[in-house]
């Protein structure tokens, strides 16, 4: 069973983003970039399936600039077998990403696509669901656990009220939530081995997809800042202040 | 043309997020219709019909929609899409699950988690965990939007909309609901509570969350948690407040033993009043707190419990 894992190159989780003065976006110059944390969880899940003998080949796909090859190398070092880099300039919206992934799925015929539930840059949370719809597949989003048997993925999902388990027919798309697993760090020998694993380079045009954004970003601004308030000395004073503020 | 809002509910009661999404929908324009899809959910449709500004309620009452499974919701919403210019759903785990499928099938981008309607086709939405606000203009064609409910006021009651009964759309047969394990609580729901008290890694164990529960009971507050506390298994996942958990904006947010990572702040910084108790005076939470108390929570919480009792809470 082939598994496809899309991985996105984003600003590192620990970096404090700065909005550009000209309001065209956030400053990406000289900022540490990493694999989207939810995608790391996706790669880990695929590798665990492989280790349990439930998955065969794992293909990592990234759609982005030339440097997204590094993100694919990270996935390869974690245990993915080969990569596909679809090179684009500029931002690509989730719908275009989903269209490219659909074309790749039609070529590669994976039984399962494991994607992150959202990317921590645009916070859109759309790609997995869109891909499933375009392929006419079922989906299990915000996955907390996965069990595969008899052509079915049994996925427990993190929902607002707790957990919900759905049985989804394969092939299917699953998107990962935080508690699905804890991703491994790639070992040095595996990082070396990953350098020899193949990455195929493509463009959106190879898949007949127009990757130009459809939404127009008019501006990107700083959110309203909260100013630090005061320190109180005791629990009683805290309650007095909250009472004065009408909060309790 | 009209604007459609997909109702959030549990088949018994309408979730507040719906009336808040109706407010956003009214700002987008056109008469507002509400789709209630569920099973044995007539009471929900009746409640939706009473929201001021709602012109019509569409009721799809069928076992197929009992859990609002994404694939079935997609087919149902697509069967109605011709009638609408814009389709909005609250950005709950449910809305986030089905709406992107609808957008993809209509071949239009989705605009996720709007926090402001600037114009009929211009919206503000947070990106990078709320560290930047993006103003976007919708593309030509239908507008498919999820709404961060906490950013909008609840539409008033007083409406009297007609209810149209819809037949069920086809069953795509791709997935089926198996089971649910929901957290049971007598407390108010996290995203609509007036007061939220959240605990973090500083609590040290699930058992110690009882200290928070006591205060929550006195203040009729909901209980939340940081990702660290959820990851450590102190409390279930549905307690998580933050970029990838729930976004809350109560009258009072009391953070206890939470350092204040940007991902957590993303989920609570729009609260009206923020108070924090932390023993580390350098904790970033104090940079956004209106009132900060540097103290050991294991002393401060029992003291707060007694003090509240003394004051008649």
Strand order of the largest sheet of chain A: 9-8-7-10-6-1-4-5-11
**Subunit arrangement of the protein:** heterodimer
Please state roughly what percent of the residues of chain A sit in beta strands, choosing from under 5%, 5-15%, 15-25%, 25-35%, 35-45% or over 45%: 25-35%
CATH architectural designation of chain A: 3-Layer(aba) Sandwich
Mind telling me the CATH class of the largest domain in chain B? Alpha Beta
Count of the separate structural domains of chain A: 1
Shape annotation of chain B: globular
CATH topology description of chain A: Rossmann fold
Instruction: Work out the helicity level of chain A.
Output: 25-40%
The CATH topology name of the largest domain in chain B reads Rossmann fold
CATH superfamily of the largest domain in chain B: HUPs
List the helices and strands of chain A in order: EEEHEHEHEHEEEEHEEEH
Mean pLDDT of chain A: 97
* Helical segment count of chain A: 6
CATH C-level name of chain A: Alpha Beta
What does this structure look like?
- The complex is a heterodimer of chains A (248) and B (313).
- Chain A is of the alpha/beta class and 248 residues long.
- Chain A has one domain: Rossmann fold (3-Layer(aba) Sandwich), CATH 3.40.50.
- Chain A is built from 6 helices and 13 strands.
- A 9-stranded mixed β-sheet of chain A has the order 9-8-7-10-6-1-4-5-11, sandwiched between helices. A two-stranded antiparallel sheet of chain A has the order 2-3.
- In chain A, strand 8 (152-159) and strand 9 form a beta hairpin.
- The longest helix of chain A is centred in the first third of the chain and has 15 residues, at 37-51.
- Chain A is globular, with a radius of gyration of 21 Å.
- In chain A, 50% of the residues are buried.
- Chain B is an alpha/beta fold.
- Chain B folds into 2 domains: 2-165, HUPs (Rossmann fold, 3-Layer(aba) Sandwich), CATH 3.40.50; 195-310, TPP-binding domain (Rossmann fold).
- Chain B is built from 8 helices and 16 strands.
- Chain B has helices spanning 16-28, 42-49, 70-80, 93-106, 209-219, 227-231, 262-265, 297-310, and strands at 2-6, 32-38, 54-61, 84-90, 110-114, 116-119, 122-127, 132-137, 143-147, 162-165, 175-182, 195-199, 222-225, 252-256, 273-278, 291-294.
- In chain B, helix 5 (209-219) links the parallel strand 12 and strand 13 (222-225).
- In chain B, helix 3 (70-80) packs across helix 4 and helix 5 runs parallel beside helix 8 (297-310).
- Chains A and B meet through helix 3, helix 4, strand 7, strand 8 and strand 9 of A and helix 3, helix 4, strand 5, strand 7 and strand 8 of B.
- Strand 13 of chain A pairs parallel with strand 16 (291-294) of chain B, so a sheet runs across the interface.
């Amino acid at each position: 069973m082939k598994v496809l894992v899309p991985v996105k190159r984003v600003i590192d989780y620990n970096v404090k983003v700065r909005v550009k003065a000209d309001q065209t976006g956030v400053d990406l110059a000289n900022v540490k970039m990493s694999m989207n944390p939810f995608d790391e969880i996706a790669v880990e899940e695929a590798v665990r399936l492989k280790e349990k003998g439930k998955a065969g080949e794992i293909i990592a796909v990234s759609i982005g600039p030339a440097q997204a090859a590094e993100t694919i190398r990270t996935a390869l070092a974690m245990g993915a077998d080969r990569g596909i880099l679809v090179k684009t300039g500029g931002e690509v919206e989730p719908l275009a990403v989903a269209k490219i992934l659909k074309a790749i799925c039609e070529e590669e015929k994976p039984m399962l696509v494991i994607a992150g539930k959202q990317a921590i840059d645009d916070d859109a949370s759309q790609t997995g669901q869109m891909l499933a719809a375009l392929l006419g597949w079922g989906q299990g989003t915000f996955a907390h656990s996965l069990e595969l048997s008899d052509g079915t993925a049994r996925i427990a999902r993190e929902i607002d009220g707790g957990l919900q388990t759905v049985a989804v027919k394969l092939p299917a798309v699953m998107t990962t939530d935080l508690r699905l697993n804890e991703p491994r760090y790639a070992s040095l020998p595996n990082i070396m081995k990953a350098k020899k694993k193949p990455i195929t380079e493509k463009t959106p045009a190879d898949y007949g997809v127009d990757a130009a954004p459809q939404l127009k970003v008019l501006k990107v601004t700083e959110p309203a800042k909260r100013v630090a308030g005061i320190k109180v000395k005791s629990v009683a004073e805290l309650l007095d202040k909250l009472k004065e503020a009408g909060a309790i | 043309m009209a604007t459609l809002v997909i109702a959030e509910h549990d088949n018994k009661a309408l979730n507040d997020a719906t009336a808040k999404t109706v407010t956003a929908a009214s700002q987008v324009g056109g008469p507002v219709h509400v789709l209630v899809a569920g099973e044995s959910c007539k009471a929900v449709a009746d409640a939706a019909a009473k929201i001021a500004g709602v012109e019509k309620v569409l009721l799809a009452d069928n076992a197929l929609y009992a859990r609002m499974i994404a694939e079935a919701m997609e087919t149902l919403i697509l069967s109605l899409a011709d009638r609408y210019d814009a389709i909005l759903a609250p950005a709950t785990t449910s809305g986030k699950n089905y709406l992107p499928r609808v957008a993809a099938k209509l071949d239009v981008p989705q605009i996720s988690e709007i926090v402001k309607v600037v114009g009929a086709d211009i919206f503000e939405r947070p990106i990078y965990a709320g560290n930047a606000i993006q103003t976007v203009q919708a593309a030509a064609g239908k507008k498919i939007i999820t709404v961060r409910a906490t950013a909008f006021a609840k539409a008033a009651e007083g409406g009297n909309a007609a209810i149209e009964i819809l037949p069920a759309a086809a069953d795509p047969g791709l997935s089926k609901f198996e089971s649910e394990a929901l957290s049971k609580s007598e407390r108010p729901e996290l995203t609509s509570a007036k007061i939220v008290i959240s605990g973090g890694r500083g609590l040290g164990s699930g058992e110690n969350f009882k200290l928070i529960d006591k205060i929550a009971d006195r203040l009729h507050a909901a209980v939340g948690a940081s990702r660290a506390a959820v990851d450590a298994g102190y409390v279930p996942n549905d307690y998580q407040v933050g970029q990838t958990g729930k976004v809350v904006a109560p009258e009072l947010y009391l953070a206890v033993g939470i350092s204040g990572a940007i991902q957590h702040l993303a989920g609570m910084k729009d609260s009206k009043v923020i108070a924090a108790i932390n023993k580390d005076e350098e904790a970033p939470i104090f940079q956004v707190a209106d009132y900060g108390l540097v103290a050991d929570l294991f002393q401060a919480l029992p003291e707060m419990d007694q003090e509240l009792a003394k004051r008649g809470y």
